[in-house]
Amino acid sequence: MPQINSEATQTNAVHQEQQPTEPQTDTEQVLQPEQRQHVNVNPAQIQTPQIINNKVPVVVFVGPPSSGKSMILVRLAKYLRDEGYTIETDPTFLNTDDYQQDCQEFNDKLNTNIALKGSVKFLLVNVYKDGQEVAKLLEAPGEDFYTTDPMKIKAGKNDMVEPYLSTIITSNNRKSYVVLLDLDSEISFRRDSRHRDSYQQRFLKYFYPNIDKNKDRIILLYNKIDMTMFGNINCCDNIKGARDDAKLYYKQWFSSMKVSSLGGFISSENFVFKTFCTGVFSPQTDGFGEKYQTYNIANNIFPKELWKEITRKF
Ligand SMILES: Nc1nc2c(ncn2[C@@H]2O[C@H](COP(=O)(O)OP(=O)(O)OP(=O)(O)O)[C@@H](O)[C@H]2O)c(=O)[nH]1
Ligand SMILES: [Mg+2]
User: Fold this and answer.
1) Is 183 in the pocket of ligand 1 (CB under 6 A)?
2) pLDDT per residue over 74-131, tens digit each?
């Protein structure tokens, strides 16, 4: 698989900025040109999802297919509801039948131990406390960003960010990025360094330059910790081991996401490392032969600690 050629991509990004595009959405019109410089937009998708409230903090879940984004949203939502928050899917995000169905699926499954189907494409979930909206949880950024299909990669499909996401990345909302260090999912990032390296480079190219270190937060999340020797459904009992493992596989992120202070004398990490487990999953088949999964829910400590990190700068 070809690695990203940053020079070629730079040219491509500039070229795309100069092309006539379809009418901009309201939220896009407020962006300043200098804010857009790092984002390579796919113009064909211009009329797609958008977040219309630019005041509420947004929690962006970034991670390859099957890395566990949707189930983290479900797990976090269950925890927050128990803590007195109100959870609602956001109907204004995208006006398509598929999205409305995905919202319905999320709401239905929230009260059960049945896993969401893998087909949920977009999810925007609003979190309220005492009638005030405190956060929006967004599953992003779409399958093509991680595609392993050589033809799609050749066509540059993974080397662009959807317009809705570029709007969010460059918006004034406070943001927490929960970036999944996927190692044990179907696209095995543990086995394939090319996918891993490319994922890291694209995050560093499109997301990272727009991060405001004073307002935003990056959480590198080692999910499915129950599948490793470092933890189980109750806890991560070897956080150092998990961190070293993650660092071995995601060197670029650990080495480049740093901020310096005191005139460059001191440098510190511009992210926090956490582990997570949603639960242990079991395949099931219903009376019609339809396959689904149930799960034994993992300990509250995981969503509790994740929420604490997410909201630290809100
Ligand atoms: N062992 C284990 N498996 C998990 C965990 N979380 C998710 N899984 C498994 O991973 C599968 C995919 O999880 P999803 O939450 O749907 O993943 P996703 O990132 O939303 O996937 P896409 O929407 O396709 O991008 C689930 O159906 C489970 O089988 C976990 O904490 N532990
Ligand atoms: Mg999903």
Assistant:
1) no
2) 999 999 999 999 999 988 888 888 888 989 999 999 999 999 987 777 889 999 999 9
Is this prediction's pTM over 0.90?
no
Q: How far is CA 262 from CA 259, 265, 268, in A?
A: 10, 5, 11
CA proximity to 145, closest of 79, 83, 202, 196: 202
Ligand nearest to the CA of 72: 1
- The domain segmentation of the chain, as residue ranges, is 57-310
d(CA 285, CA 297): 19
Task: Name the pairing type of β-strands 279-285 and 266-269.
Answer: unpaired
Written as six digits, the tokens of 219 are: 């959480």
User: How do strand 272-275 and strand 217-222 relate by DSSP bridges?
Assistant: parallel
Q: Is the CB of 71 under 6 A from ligand 1?
A: yes
Nearest residue to 271 via CA among 245, 243, 298: 243
Q: Whose CA is nearest to atom 16 of ligand 1?
A: 118
Task: Give me 54's structure tokens.
Answer: 């630019």
Class of domain 57-310: alpha beta
- Which DSSP letter does residue 231 get? B
Q: How confident is the model at residue 149 (pLDDT cuts 50, 70, 90)?
A: confident
CA–CA dist 140, 165 (Å, integer): 8
**pLDDT tens-digit map of 234-255:** 999 999 999 999 999 999 999 9
Residues contacting residue 151 through CB under 8 Å, at least 6 positions apart: none
Which residue has the CA at smallest separation from atom 28 of ligand 1? 281
pLDDT at 177 > cutoff 80: yes
68 lines ligand 1 (CB under 6 A): yes
